Amino acid sequence: MNDNKMVIITGSGIGIGRSTAKVFGDAGWHVVVTDILEKEGQEIRDEIISNGGSAEFHLLDVTSSAEVTNVVQSVEESHGQPFSAAVANAGIAHKVPFDEMTDEKWAHTLDVDLTGEFRLIRAVAPGMKKAKTGSIVCVSSVMGTTYGWHDHIQYNAAKSGVVGLVRGLACDLGSHGIRVNGLAPGFIRTAQALSTVHSLGPEGLEKAAEYIPLGRVGEPDEMADVIVFMCSAGARYLTGQTIIVDGGVTVGRY
Ligand SMILES: NC(=O)c1ccc[n+]([C@@H]2O[C@H](COP(=O)([O-])OP(=O)(O)OC[C@H]3O[C@@H](n4cnc5c(N)ncnc54)[C@H](O)[C@@H]3O)[C@@H](O)[C@H]2O)c1
After folding, report:
1. In the chain, N or C terminus with fewer CB closer than 10 Å?
2. Is 155 a catalytic residue?
3. Which pTM was predicted?
4. Contacts of 172 (CB under 8 A, 6+ apart)
5. DSSP 136-181
6. pLDDT value at 1 more than 60
7. Residue 140 clears pLDDT 50, i.e. is over it
8. Ligand 1 neighbour 16 (Cβ under 6 A)
9. CB neighbours (10 Å) of residue 46?
10. pLDDT computed for residue 253 by the predictor
11. Residue 55, domain extent
């Protein structure tokens, strides 16, 4: 049983983060749901509790170092224990044509998708170091490991940065018993991918399925299961790796 273990997940009101919160909750972890979406975050907290699990919700914007640090420290203090796991999941994928890219648009995506992940890890690392154990998962993308994505160069750059973040942190934190890994989802049915403004939209997703060896886009719980595995004892010798979970699209598209 993991009933004394705590995990914090950013952006867990909807999508991949929400499914991850649910799977950790079902596995007996105390789940700290965080998001800028208050209603959705409270809903998944309530769902975990009504399923017999343990959870709490905190409003948390990953662009604020102060908020990230405050939430992590106050939860650790109130429970009298460090986090056993942290999932840096919050992300945005805004469509910005190259010719319209400004410093502000570039910096905003980097701030959420890359620096936001770093902020969470910086906050949880001291407690994990004291405990000499911990597992961190950073959500990247096949747009960070493999593909270029037109009109999304800032997203490509941020998600590639996450792969480097994972490698470097694995070196810095490994001697403290802390493992750091990345997850690179392919095409997953969430609000991000279903946006016709910023991403593929429902029709584009169905079309993408034609190129995916498994013949369909992924579901959020299929990411969640891998994230929870990466935080389990079964993955005790896994660190510094970004694992692509994409139904085979990066090996099958030619
Ligand atoms: N859906 C896909 O196909 C796909 C593919 C590759 C990678 N990803 C990545 O997976 C992660 C989860 O995305 P998703 O697909 O579930 O999308 P989603 O839009 O459903 O969820 C993103 C979550 O991040 C939160 N968020 C956004 N800005 C935030 C901020 N400043 N502070 C805190 N939270 C913030 C949102 O409120 C939301 O809860 C993201 O990092 C995304 O880039 C998704």
Report:
1. C
2. yes
3. 0.98
4. none
5. EEEE--HHHHT---TT-HHHHHHHHHHHHHHHHHHHHHHTTTEEEE
6. no
7. yes
8. yes
9. 13
10. 67
11. 6-252
What's the structural domain count of the chain? Answer: 1
Compute, in angstroms, the gap from residue 131 CA to the centroid of ligand 1: 29
Query: How many degrees, rounded to 5, is the angle at CA 118 between CA 237 and CA 70?
Result: 110
* Mean per-residue pLDDT of the chain: 96
Sole residue written with tokens 């959420």: 112
CATH number for the domain spanning 11: value is 3.40.50.720
Provide the CB-side half-sphere exposure for 181 (13 A, CA): 22
Closest by CA to 55, choosing from 120, 121, 9, 124, is 9
Residue 244's Cβ-count burial label (10 Å; 0-12, 13-18, 19+) is: buried
Decide whether any atom of ligand 1 lies within 6 Å of the 250 Cβ. no
Q: Is 1 within the bounds of a domain?
A: no
Q: Ligand 1 within 6 A of 247 CB? A: no
Q: Which two tokens stand for residue 181?
A: 């890994």
Which residues on neighbouring strands pair with residue 62, listed in sequence order?
A: none
Q: What is the pLDDT of residue 254?
A: 59
pLDDT of 80 higher than 80: yes
